[in-house]
Each structure stands twice: as C-alpha cells, then as structure tokens.
Amino acid sequence: MERLSGNIILLWGWRRALVAFLGGAFLVLSAAPFDFFAAGFVSFPILVWLLDGAVPERPGGRLSHLVPAFVVGWWFGFGYFVVGLWWVGMAMLVDAGSHAWAIPIAVVLLPAILALFYGFAAALARLAWSDGLGRVLALAAAFGLAEWLRTFVFTGFPWNPVGYAAMPIPLLMQSVSAVGTMGMNILVVLVFAVPALLAGRRHRWAGFVVATALAVAHVGYGYVTLARPRGESVQTISVRIVQPAIDQARKIDREARDDIFRTLLSLSGQPVETGGTPPRLIVWPETSVPFIFAERPDSLTAIADLLADGQVLMAGAVRAEEGAGGERTRYYNSVVEIDDAGEISGAVDKAHLVPGGEYLPFEELFGRFGIDRIVAIPVSFSPGAGRRILAAPGGLTAAAFVCYEMIFPDLVADGGSGADFIVTVTNDGWFGDTPGPYQHLRQAQIRAVETRKPVLRAANTGISAVIDERGRILDALAIDARGSLDSVVPVPQPTNRMFSPRLTGFFLLFGALALSLGLGAGPRRRLD
Fold first, then answer.
1. Which pTM was predicted?
2. Does 363 participate in catalysis according to the annotation?
3. pLDDT tops 70 at residue 296
4. Domains of the chain
5. Which of 147, 251, 337, 350 is an active site residue?
6. What's the per-residue H, E or C state across 461-516?
7. Is 469 in the active site?
C-alpha cells in the first residue's frame, strides 16, 4: 500500500490530472443505478494521496500552496460530474435542430462549473493538512461545506452529493433522518478516505476504529428503524399515479395535444383490479395537461366527468396568470388540484426554476443571438411566490413539488412542514433511459426518509413510484411503461424531533474541522 501511495503522491503534470479525473469518474459507480458503494473506498484514498503530493513547483506565497490542491480537486470533480451527468445533454437532442449547439454546455461546461466546488474543498482541506487522521477529517469537513454551498450557489444544483454513496438501499438511508444530507456527506468522506491511512503509521488504528464504529452505527440505526412498527396512529389514502409515457418530441407537438389528454383520461378512468380499493387521489405528471385550462374550459368538464364523488386530481400543468395594468401574462409550472366538480381548488407553483430550461437569465440579451429556452413556452416561467399545502381526501394534506425541486433538502423540509405526505411530479422524458431518471428517483427516496413522509412520484415516462416514509418503494412503474399505479399508502402522523438534522449536520461540520485542526497541531512532516 505504501508503494502504491508513493507512486500516486509523486505523480506530476498531466498524469496527476488524469488520475484525479479517473478517481472522480470511478466514484460515479457509487451512484444510482450502479450503487457500487465500495467505489468510494478507491476514489477517496486516491484523492488523499494526490493531495499529499499537491505542492507548488517553486516557493511562493501561502495562496500559491493551495493552487495545486485546487487543481487536483477540480479534476476529481470534473471526472465525477462529466461521467455522472452526461445524460443532461440528451435533453438537447429532443429538438436537435434548435438546441444541439448547447450540448457542450450541458456535457462539459456544467460539470466544469460544478467541479469548482470540489476544487474549493480540496484547497480548503489543504489549509489544515497533516499526517494521519487529521487530513482525512479536514477533507471530510471541506466536502461537507462544499456540498452545502452547492445547494444554493449559482442558484444551486446539489445533484448526486457524495453522501448518497452510502445510501443505496433503505437499510442504509435511515441515518440521513438524524444527521441530514450535510452530515452524511461529511461522514461518508471520512469513512471512505480512512484506507489512505494504510500507507502511513500515524492514527492508522484510530482511523479504522472510528470508521468501523460509524459503519456499524449506520447499519444498526437502519436496521432498528426499519424493524420499528409504525404504531396505531396511521391513516391510509388510496391513490392512482398515471404514467402516460408520452415521448418528449410528441409532447411539444401542438397537433397531438387532444390525443395526449384523452390518453390521460383513459388511464385515469381504468377500473381497479378485482378486490382493489378505488383511488381517492389521482396524480398526473409534470406539465401533463397539454394546454392551459383557461383556454380550454371543456377540459375541466371532461375531468369532472372522469372523477367520482370525493375523488381529487392533482395534475402537473402550466398555469397562466393575467398581468394587471398592461403587464405581460405570467406562466407558472404548477401542480393544480381539481375536485369532482371540475373546479380548481388549489395550486402550487414551482419556486425553484431550471436556468436555461424554464427561464433564461438575461433573456433579452441572449434573444438577440437567437438563444432560447429548452422548454417551448411563449415566455420564461415565473417562480412561485410562496408555498402552500394542498387539501387531500380523508382530511389529509399534501405538499407538492415540481421536478428537480426534490433535490433540495432544505426546500422540501421547509415546504413540506405541516403536510401529511409529499406529491412530486416530474417529466424525465427529456433524458430517456439513462442514469438520470434512476438518480432522480433516489433523490425522492432520500427526501422521504429526511422528512419521514410518504412520497407519491408521478413521472411522464417513469420512474413513477409510491415511496413510504422510510424510503422503501412500495410499487413502481418502469421507464417507458404506460399505465396507472394503484396503491393504498400508509400515512403515519408526523413525529416531533428533538434535534434538527440540519443543525446536526452543521455540528458535525464544525466538529470535524476542529478535530482536524487539533490532530494536525502536533508533529507532522513538511508538506510544502
């Protein structure tokens, strides 16, 4: 092991960059749909050893000592995001004639920007770098901070944070309800990087004792949580999730709108299986309604004819709001609630929009060069002004989120507060049968565990699913399958927590940083 680490430490130039890139790329195997979590035990020791050797070519100021570490971290992140997010470019091929030019932006520039966060983490860790366990703790704290920044800097895009590597199955997801996503990011890097200590003598056994204790606690907490009964205070709601499997190219075809709507009505009105419970709630995917209700009032009449007494439909739809005093009409990407009388009884507008997809920053400037949004609407979507809870059948309440809003832990935790369950609608048809939809589903599972609320997920082309409050998929429809999913979903009463997972995550962050500084304060070899 010492020989291997020595060879990696002594790498220079393009060889160092290549190994960093490959280390990050290999880490993608820990993400869905591969779920090979052991990849982390390879990638992070490599990163530690690369940072051990990240020294400037010639003496300089303190900042110059951080540049080599930043470069290593950037290449590591670039490999991780290029290989993990290549499927984003598939969205540009739906209307290739208009958007193929943007493929390099999605496949190269986006990963290059996201890699800045990992470069920052590596440089920050290098400030507290030392021999032994101290440098592993410094790296864990730095990644925890970088992943937290990734939730809001540049509008935020916390896709596939490193902590997800330790949560491939529900048994291993339960810890996130105690320490939050930030805490998992810190603990995962700590455990995965510990094998780097095999190449030295300082803190070797202490590191493995800590890593083993954390792994045992992680598995044990999951086992105890899944084995614990829900108790008696559990309601149920019968639901039907509709997955129309409409090809994205057809969705943007104006001539196909009526046919798409008839497909939704047909799937929603199918009889339940013998002995099954008729659904009280029906859920349609994101922007499934192919027109604006205000322009087609007959569509509400058709929905009223579809729904039985007491049934409710929650549908992903574009909502238009006329501007006052000559202002332009505003369009919202929404979840619209419709009762059995065909009346809109509530709506939740998407608050966190996709840059370049649902709105275009500096729209007038880019418009001069013929650059437009990917989503074909007259103008950019407007963000929702606030979050509201929707009334559901049986006296229950639902918090609704649209598409990638579900990747933001704090947004879902705050927006879902006070609701009994979560409804999320999405359209992953832009990305085909790639890792994207599987990774998106994993995000919904993690949000269910964090909030301890069931999640009903309706996706245009899949994966639609019913997820319980412990992250278990009760039923699902495969990608590109057309049909409806009926389920009776248990809805436990919300539990009061003594400590917020968000605060626990920050506690772990500062604790890891303090320990790294303390362990690095003793004798250590010169690193620069």
1. 0.91
2. no
3. yes
4. 2-227+501-519 (no CATH), 234-353+385-492 (3.60.110.10)
5. 350
6. CCCEEEECCCCCEEEEECCCCCEEEEEEEEEECCCCCCCCHHHHHHHHHHHHHHHH
7. no
